Input
Amino acid sequence: MKQAPLYGVAAEFDDPTAIVAAARRLADEGYMKFEAYTPFHIEELSGAIPVRRPLLPLIVLAGGVVGAVGGFFMLYYATVIGYPLNIGGRPPDSWPMYIPITFELTVLFAALFAVFGVLALCRLPMPYHPLFGVESFARASQDRFFLCVEADDPKFDRQETANLLRSMNALEVNDVFD
Amino acid sequence: MSAEDAQKSEELRLPPIVRPGHTFASVTGKISAIVLKRPYTPGWLLGFGASFMLLMLFMYAVTYLLVAGVGIWGVDIPVAWGFAITSFVWWIGIGHAGTLISAILLLLNQKWRTSINRFAEAMTLFAVACAGMFPLLHLGRPYYFYWLLPYPNIMSLWPQFRSPLVWDVFAVFTYATVSLLFWYMGLVPDLATLRDRARGRFTRKIYGVMALGWRGASRHWHQYQTGYLLLAGLATPLVVSVHTVVSFDFAVAIVPGWHSTIFPPYFVAGAIFSGFAMVITIAVPLRAAFGLEDFITERHLENMAKVMLATGLMVTYSYVFETFFSWYSDNPFEQFISLNRATGPYALMFWTQITCNVVAPQFLWLRRVRRSSVLLFILALVINLGMWVERYVIVVTSLHRDFLPSSWGMYSGTFWDWATLLGSFGLFLSLMFLFIRFLPAISMAEMRELLPEAKVKEGEAG
Output
């Protein structure tokens, strides 16, 4: 059987301070393609692991605009053009009456864009990931912290990178295969 | 809990948010064990069995309703809105506390919300499911419910968009959808934990599919956190708007006792009041049954009691001013309705409402009551009852005395009214029991973040 190609080298830590220190060290050493896997959000990691320009707020704004404009004009079309009804002599385009539904649709579309936006930006759902092959990785969702340097990083060297990670108090360093 | 928080709690002699001595592993273990390790206890089976029987009663009542029509209920002219609308408003109000806890308290950075937000959100979702049933069943021809939605049809008809009842459809639908999204998004990291801890192949597959392949990557956490905050920001005005729109169902009508500008804030405060009562009704047995006193501490009970007291006072204020305005309006119909509520044929209901919603919450001024789970539980039940009765009084008393005495009438619930109401508890409780059994009732990921060891020590982090 052919050996699966190498995805990277993963180190396991047991406290948040250690992984933040390690991530900062990797960034200092000039590594670019590495990622931390933690059981809860650690804000300090964002400094060491570059995040892309925040796209999500724009996506949510777009959703809100779609809901607001679409909702308002649906109501306008229905009550003025599509099916005008005379309700107590009020003008057909009685816009204050459109506000509640316009508001609800704004929130609805913004929320849908937010959730599906997060999923799209995270490339989820993704049923398989090479790290799931590492046995101890199950604890990344419980009480352990993982740092994985990917093999396509220009500075990646299987031996050297592993040694560097070991020198930073990693409990264990594993090769990760695709 | 951060250092300053801890210090502040020390000064004020507040109980902690999480009892000391917990680690990442112990929090994870304790919460996930309820789902993965604990056997089915007789208590759970009994509770679920009883709830399921009530659910069957609901199915029976609804089936008979669909066959025979709304004539089986007590509603008639002039009282055309009876139990169904009362229960709709009551259920949807209960849901509001869940959103308040999960969204508004998140934006206000109230850390104590963490251990109660998950099951409060579940409560919201199930309460909205119950609420949504009632107006649909009340339609007369429930199988035409889709006429309420703007859908392309060969008659090129549109819904009457100037009617608050149509606004309600949009408000409740949006509320249910956003609550579901918010709840599921919060669950994803915990579902990954369950996937990784599950022993059985099948269990692991199910949780694995639901976790969407979440692996806790820091870039993902970053997006996730932004998305979660944005959702909270969207849910906050939404929750206020939903009960506002519900109150428009009444306030836009010209019926005396309904046509009032105080209704939107009055309804929102009442919703949060009754919702917190329901959260306490669920939290107290939950922590006792599963030994969660470490995570749902006296601090949580006390804070919820304080919110209940504050919103109870707002409700009291609304009662006072509702009566004041009816006198000050100099409108004989308004004045008559106010007097009729207190002294007419439904006076018993009115005074029950005052006792439960105005008098009973005053006990919450005492710290001893706020920290006693038993007393709080009893008070919460009283307030739940009071808030249902409040809506009953609003709906029924305003309608039963029409403008002309020749059109006056009386209303009381029939067996089928009661069966539908009790049955809706069956739906709510069955879902709640299933939720507690199959999903983590407390957010593990957020609890880990609260622990002292979760803090990155800047001095040592290079």
User: Anything to note?
Assistant: Chain A has five helices and four strands. Chain A touches chain B through 69 residues (CB under 8 Å). Chain A has two domains: 6-52+128-177, 56-121. The mean pLDDT of chain A is 91.
